Amino acid sequence: MIYGIGTDLCDVRRIAATLARKSDRFAEKVLGPDELKVFHARRAKVESRGIRFLATRFSAKEAFSKAVGMGLHMPMTWRSCEILNERSGKPYIRLHGELAAWFAQRNLVAHVTVTDETDYVASFVVVETAATFPATALQP
To answer: pLDDT tens digits for 86-98?
Structure first.
């Protein structure tokens, strides 16, 4: 059953301006440890790729906070929610600390997708209650 849906549209130029004004402190406030590694690697190769990565993560976290219905209030914090990629490129959400415990307590599962263009990024998150079927119910 769907618990919540969140979407966000973000102007990459706004993220670039904030990053220029606040330097890496902005990225360090928004990104978790594994996201920061990707951000620095992408930015070192091509500045705009790093900025778009930061913008997609900012947007996805906004969408996630809307889907769980709490905005950016405890236990939801920027760094307690990471948007990472599987080897295939598919994005997924990894939660930490109190937010992970809050999420697990409610037996929730999150699905995320992000997209980016030159000036805009968009994110969509669906949070649902995890199915609790007996293993035999899944067999044909």
So the answer is: 999 999 999 999 9
